[in-house]
Design brief:
Low-confidence stretches: 133-139
Shape: globular
Strand content: 25-35%
Mean pLDDT: 85
Order of helices and strands: HEHHEEHEHEHHEE
Distance between the termini: 33 Å
Number of helices: 7
Helix content: 25-40%
Number of strands: 7
Amino acid sequence: LVNEMIEVSKSEILEKDLKLVSINISELLNRLVKRQVFLIEEKHMKTILKIEENLEIKADQERITKAINNIINNAIKYSPEESELIIRLYDKNKRISKKTSNQRVVLEIENTGVTIEKRYLEEIFNPFYRIEKSRSRKTGGSGLGLYIVSQIFKSHGFDYSIKNKENSVVFTVEFKN
């Protein structure tokens, strides 16, 4: 908890100190999913990856890695056994019009078998907020993960949201270059 609070303070203080570099987000995403294979297999989850190749974004490598890793980890941690983890990465403009050269990369991380009550969706990015109040060993966590994620995306100017579908939760990020 103390380490996460230090991380929050650091991200707020250093918010203006982003080291923007060109990142192959397709490769980064594949690496981050591989890092979580043990947890995915432990829950017997099916992983569906729909990742367009060689998509690039401009971002702070360390911070964006931390944010995406946290979202993937949450999707696994808060899913029931034998559910699905669906990860989509695509160029939004390519789907709209082939003429547009301005790339708008969209990442969607969806976990099935669970939804979040509507009243919690508005609170989920607040510091120390947890839907499951017990802070049990089963899910762990301090309620700072999604707050840190939101601060990282805000500092980059990226749009993000979390919403329910019929039997799943989808976290969406739009990376604007």
